[in-house]
Description:
Blueprint lengths: L1 H4 L5 H7 E3 L5 E3 L3 H8 L8 H67 L7 H15 L2 E4 L11 E9 L6 E7 L1 E4 L2 E4 L1 E8 L3
Parallel strand pairs: 4-8
Antiparallel strand pairs: 1-2, 3-6, 5-8, 6-7
Helix pairs in contact: 4-5
Amino acid sequence: MAENSKKKPGEESARKKAQHSEDGDTADVSSVDDLIEAEGPDVETLTPEELSFLEAGERDLVADMRNDLARAQAELVNFRKRVERDRAANREAVIAEVIRTLLPALDDLSRAEAHGDLAGSPLELVAQKLHAGFARFGLRTVGEKGEQFDPHLHEALVQLPSSDVSVNTVADVIEPGYALGDRLLRAAKVAVSVPDGD
Length: 198
């Protein structure tokens, strides 16, 4: 043991010259170039098969990313269209609900106008402005005397047998109906002339 602990002359200088490589092995190098030669090149050379495999993988990855991007863009466009469509539908629903709550007041003004109670009074101007405002939103009356009865637009309160008609026809409008665009707000309450069964 004592012999091992004794150092031979020249052993110390050899240890100082020895450099450790990255994998832990020692190499005798005196410069960086010697170290590079001792370690070998950092870049491994690839075979042509390996290069073509890597290039194909790169192309596939780029194609996949392009497909993902196109899909994401299409989903965004569809989302925007859906949001706009929902926004328009919600707007129409809100307008329809507001107008539906005002229909009784509109009925009262129409009855007063039919009886001549509005002529020359300040309420005549109010009624005209209300009718113009509702018309701007697309409100229209449903149910006129003489038109063919349609159960989707009319609510029959009375049936009157008549030999003058060949199909069910509106004989009188008891309360007008209203539609906003294609949406029926209230069906017209009508008396219907039905063909006489004689």
